Amino acid sequence: MPDTSALAMSYFQQAAACYQQARYVDSIQNYLSGLEYDKSHYHIYADLAKAYEMVGKWDQALSYLDIALQLCPDSTTILRRQARIREEKEYYQQIIAEAKLIDVPPPEFIRILEDKNLQSPQSVVDDNILKLSVDPPLMPKTLWYICQLIVRTYKDVGSKLDCFPDHQVIISIINTGKSHIHTDMPSWASGCYDGHILLKYCGDGEPELGVLWTLIRHEWSHLLVDKLTHGNCPHWFDEGLAQTIARPLLSFEKHTLKQAKKNGTLPSLAGLNQPFSQFSTSERKIAYLQSATIVSSLIGDAGFHSIRNLMQLIRNDTPIDIALQLIYDRRIVSD
Amino acid sequence: MRFFRKTPMSARYSDTDIYEAEIQEAYTCWLKNEKLSRKQKSLLKNIQGSSHFHKIKDLIDFAHYRFQETESVTPTVGSKERVAEKLMQAIQDQSEQKTADEGLPLNPQPAYSPEVMGNVDTDVMPNSLKPPTEAELKRWQNPGEIEDTESPTLAHLHLSFEKKDDEVSITDLGSQTPTYIDGVRVKDSAPIQEGSEFKSGEITFKIVDIDSQ
User: Fold this and answer.
1) How far is B21 from A150, CA to CA, in rounded Å?
2) Which residue spans within chain A are E strands per DSSP?
3) Which residues of chain B neighbour A256 with C-beta distances below 8 Å?
4) N or C: which end of chain A has fewer CB within 10 A?
5) What is the edge-to-edge ordering of all strands in the sheet holding B203-206?
6) What three-state secondary structure class fits B46?
7) CB contact, 8 Å: B141 with chain A?
8) Which residues of chain A does CATH 3.40.30.160 include?
9) B67 pLDDT exceeds 60?
């Protein structure tokens, strides 16, 4: 007779290791396997919920947090997690509901997909404007939704920045849980723009559309900023604008930022001007949030029009501090 | 003989054209010492700040001063429209030129999206092969306290030293607080010499002697 407690712990250990490697589907499977042998640890339910959160399965995440709370009603970590996941669920579901996507793909779209077959990576669209591929293949309805979200992004972000791509935009979407395509992206990143847009998600089915749309908007912003500034844009401004365009800060992020300010761990603007991949995990999170807050306040002061003027100056090699002074009459505070 | 169909303003000119025409108008009003609206003042800030408008500015200056010199001459019918058309043409040519040289740099700097969900301060709890202790659960419950107590100091596994031939190097093991050698951040590993100072967390060490044995 095997020691079930040790067996359960071994699954939980494996689950935590998978989580740290961003292999969330494997992590969930290991947590569930471990729970078949040992159901007594509330923190396991809370961690399983976090793994579900990372694949955008909000309802499953919240139901496991309910179990965790029954076992330990006063846990601050569980209560914080619950509030956060509720907020995420509400936000991402709301943006998709408000997008009013058309459900039924037109017959021409289905015909294109049938012609392109179901091989991996699946080529969805390849015309003068857009080349979209997914790996592994997705359901036609999901692909139809994704195409509509890309068109919305083209229009929304394009009109905000008054800029539209003048070449074919290549977008690849891969499910890291199932795709065999190797990427150089760090494990913490969900999207990358390096001339092409690469987006990744981890799930056992279709991607969560609200989250995917947020990523598309973020990377689309990088594409346009690169075009508008000719690659001269300071990192903090580029990332801050992309974050602001992608979605507003949620309340738990504002709280994180406030805590960082209270602890004196906010970096200076000069400190933010290095590739964000060089920061440690906690520093990076703060850097994204802080940059988004700065850019968002500039937009709040003078609108997107001022952002376009600022990028025009940056493009013409005007240093960012002088550009900020000219457009917003603001000086950079070094601390 | 020319045939033309009158098209609405919105079909003839884009939003950018209209915006630039408004800037021209504001600049012209300013040249003529006319009273400026708040919007015109704000537009004038843009013309000062952006080199993109210099050519248009030059054209307006030219037109304005020429007009002053020939004030007594009555402009011919349609001249006003032709000047406007010419200015618009200058703007559009400039836009085309701008688009033409706006190629992407060959290798854009990679820019990443962070994970859009979750928060780093509540990462999952690392599991050992035995149930967590009270202290471990407490730390998991209060991640803020972990940061407060651990981040400024050394982590349990913060860095390692490696000696190869005559060279000694430091490897940062990826703790929350980075390691610096003589003020330069250690990304993976970096060599150290006698006299070097390295900083981990809030503690600074000085290499006094490297034993070559």
Assistant:
1) 32
2) 122-126, 130-135, 169-175, 189-193, 197-201
3) 119, 121
4) N
5) B184-185, B179-181, B197-200, B203-206
6) helix
7) yes
8) 107-227
9) no
Fold of the A4-99 domain: 1.25.40
Tell me the per-residue pLDDT of A183-213, one tens digit each, with 9 for 90 and over.
Answer: 788 888 899 999 999 999 998 889 999 999 9
Residue A133 sits at φ, ψ, to 5 deg, of -135, 150
Question: Do A312 and B52 make contact, defined as CB atoms within 8 angstroms?
Answer: yes
Q: State whether residue B180 sits within 8 Å of chain A by CB.
A: no
- pLDDT at position A263: 84
Tokens in use for A308?
């376009």
How would you write B114-125 as a 3-class SS string? ECCCCCHHHCCC
User: pLDDT (tens digit, 9 = 90+) per residue, B147-187?
Assistant: 433 344 565 566 777 777 777 888 776 666 677 787 777 77
Structure tokens at A228: 């508008």
Tell me if B133 sits within 8 A of B152, measured CB to CB: no
Which chain A residue shows the shortest CA-CA distance from B130? A9
Residues of B in contact with A271 (CB under 8 A): none
* The pLDDT of residue B118: 79
Asked if residue B94 has pLDDT above 90, the reply is: no
Report d(CA B136, CA B125) in Å as an integer.
9
Residue range A35-57: mean pLDDT, rounded? 93
Q: Which bin fits B174, alpha (ψ -120 to 50), beta or left (φ > 0)?
A: left
CA of B130 vs chain A CAs: smallest distance (Å): 6
Report the residue of chain A nearest B110, measured CA to CA: A194
Q: Are A289 and A256 in contact (CB under 8 A)?
A: yes
Token couple for A144: 């139809």
- CA–CA separation, B185 and B183 (whole Å): 6
Q: Superfamily assignment of A107-227 in CATH?
A: Collagenase ColT, N-terminal domain (3.40.30.160)
Compute the distance between CA of residue B91 and CA of residue B125 in angstroms, rounded to an integer: 61
CATH 1.25.40.10 domain span(s) along chain A: 4-99
A235-273: pLDDT as tens digits: 999 999 999 999 999 999 998 899 888 888 888 877 888
